Amino acid sequence: MKRVVIVGGGQSALQVAITLRQQGHEGTITMLSDEPALPYQRPPLSKTHLAGDADAEGLAFRTPEFYEKLEVEVRLNVRVTAVDRAERRVELEDGSTLEYDVLVLATGARPQRLGLPGEELKQVHVLRTAADSERLRTQLRAGERLVVVGGGYLGLEAAAAATQLGAKVTVLEALPRLMSRVTGARVSTFLTELHRSRGVEVRTEAVAERIEADPEGEVLVVLADGSELPCDEVLVAVGVVPNVELAEGCGLPVDNGIVVDEHGQTEDPAILAAGDCTNHPNPVIGQRLRLESVHNAIEQAKAVAATIVGAPQPYAQVPWFYSDQYDVKLQTVGLFQGADHVVLRGEPAEGKFAVLYLAGDRVIAVDAINSPREFVTARKLLAESPDGTVPLTAWPEGDGDAASSAQMIMPA
């Protein structure tokens, strides 16, 4: 029976273990996590957990008894330092080793650092673990001044949570608009106006140059244009870096992630990878991707488990994502890059609308704002299409949903 070792303690690692048992794997499963807690949800860390609406216990995916029943050994606070492919074993920080028949790298990612002078100050935070979220939340008392460097998903979610705690928030985005890497101009404008309406100062084309602190603890964020922002805390939220060091160290191909095929297989037949750390092909949309999403973590893990038990099923799905900011839920299906015009359905001023991104006459992606019906429609239609696109003429008019009635066509 195969001995499966999983390096990582996140969503993908857990899903691999669960799916292996569901598909009849009877060999041992050992999960090695460098965190002190059993696998837990990360999305709430920048939302409900940071806002104080969810405790650490509520983050856990499963109870300790679940792992016992599943016969999965979870070793916490364990760091893997190297992979010996020839001997099929991993080396641990304490000097011990663990042999495997199949190794799964579900190593995730870590926060991107800017390398700014002063980034090492205790008032400067990142947000990836439960400990990160707890540490930042304890500092965000009413009236505290928080500067968020980065106007993407994480930065805006954290800005919303901090505002709910009564903090005074400033968001700095180096590019001309918020979330420009993941959404179009209409949604960026809506989110900018949303945050400003809640008291957040949003500055675009604002590049942080250094961070300073005086002996009393006040922090100063100095921008490239010479302006200065006094604050109490700083959150750096400028993306993540995939954890590829183990793969790279044992000679596996790495290119913005661990390079795998549609089954999660590396070039070594005994090593697979899943989740945020992988660069994988998407046969539906015809390009390689590295995705950071719950959907990707779960579905790619299922494909990896299927490969291990000898019943390979390729991971070939249209990506989808979501973000909660205040009382607004943004749900996205597909990738908007490549769109040449958009169809706006609904009215942004009413806080409920959808943006359909088109290349020619085909819908390639959808952003749904407080419009779950449009999101469900997008997931269904795009998922059923062989190339992940749908003719606009095939899009239903809706049945009374404000975001599904009127349409306005405009340049992307």
Written account of the structure:
- Strands 22, 23, 24, 25, 26, 27 and 28 form a seven-stranded antiparallel β-sheet that branches. The chain has a five-stranded parallel β-sheet with strand order 3-2-1-7-19. Strands 9-16-10-11-12 form a five-stranded parallel β-sheet, with helices on one face.
- The chain is globular and about 60 Å long.
- Helix 1 (11-22) runs parallel beside helix 7.
- The longest helix is centred in the C-terminal third of the chain and has 15 residues, at 294-308.
- 21% of the residues lie in helices and 31% in strands.
- Residues 399-405 have low confidence and may be disordered.
- The chain has three domains: 4-110 and 240-308, FAD/NAD(P)-binding domain (3-Layer(bba) Sandwich), CATH 3.50.50; 124-236, FAD/NAD(P)-binding domain; 327-411, FAD/NAD-linked reductase, C-terminal dimerisation domain (Enolase-like, domain 1, 2-Layer Sandwich).
- The chain has helices at residues 11-22, 64-70, 130-139, 153-164, 185-197, 245-249, 294-308, 372-384, and strands spanning 4-7, 29-32, 72-75, 80-84, 89-92, 97-99, 102-105, 109-111, 124-125, 145-149, 168-173, 201-204, 208-213, 219-223, 228-231, 233-236, 240-242, 258-259, 271-273, 278-282, 287-289, 320-325, 328-334, 341-347, 352-359, 362-369, 390-391, 407-411.
- It is α/β, with parallel strands linked by helices.
- Strand 25 (352-359) and strand 26 form a beta hairpin.
